[in-house]
Amino acid sequence: MVLRAGCVSLVFACNAVMWTFFAKALHYSSSSATATLTTTASNFISSAILGKLLFGESRALLWWVGISLVLCGLLLMHTASPGSEQQQAEKKDK
């Protein structure tokens, strides 16, 4: 019973930390999509690491391909200059 209560409280604590970091990411990010993708990628990666360390879980090749695509998208979003989208929109209007 104590172990179950500890696990439930750990779930709530992890969710509270995740929502805190997500709110801070929304505050500092220029786009909500960037903050959402960053939080999602960090959740996937931390779940994989903790699953391996705590439970000995392994991930399939398709999972690694998927998380690689998410990380590539994250890299593209963070390296793109914020003004480039506005400049492209202005060029299309002309």
TrEMBL record:
Alphabetical UniProt keywords: Membrane, Transmembrane, Transmembrane helix
Matching InterPro entries: EmrE-like, TMEM42
Upper classification of the organism: Eukaryota, Metazoa, Chordata, Craniata, Vertebrata
Superkingdom of this protein's organism: Eukaryota
Entry's transmembrane regions: 33-54, 61-80
Name of protein: Transmembrane protein 42
Transmembrane helix keyword on record: yes
